[in-house]
Amino acid sequence: EEQRGETTAYTAIAWDLRVPWQEHLEERIGSNQESWFRIAQDAAYSLASSEVRAVRDKMLADSDASMALDRLGLIVPSGSTFTAWLSFLRGLGLVLTGKIALYRQALRDIPQQPGFPYDIEWPEKP
Question: Nearest-CA neighbor of 123 among 37, 112, 19, 25?
C-alpha cells in the first residue's frame, strides 16, 4: 500500500493455478488455502525463473564470440621461452578479468540476486 496525495495505490500479485477437475475440489481448496497458495506461488516462481534464465542464457550466448580466443586479438608467440610467452599471458589475463568477463559473470550471478526472478538488475554489456 502506498499513499499518493488523496489516493491510495495497492499492489497485488495474482497467481494462476490450473489443476485437473476433481470432485469437491473447491472444498479441498477452501479447507487448505495456504497449501494451494504455496503451490500456485511456486509454479509462478518456476515459470518466472525459467523465463529470466532463458533471457540470461541468450545474452551469454550472444557474448560467447567476444571471448573466443581467435577474436581476442592475442598473438601467440612462436618462441618457447618464458619471456616470449609473458606478454601473451599478460594479455590473456587481462581478457579473462576484463569488462566482458565481468559482464558474463554478472549474467551468471543473476539467479543469486535478492529479487530473483521478479526484480532483476541486468548488467550492461560493455
Answer: 112
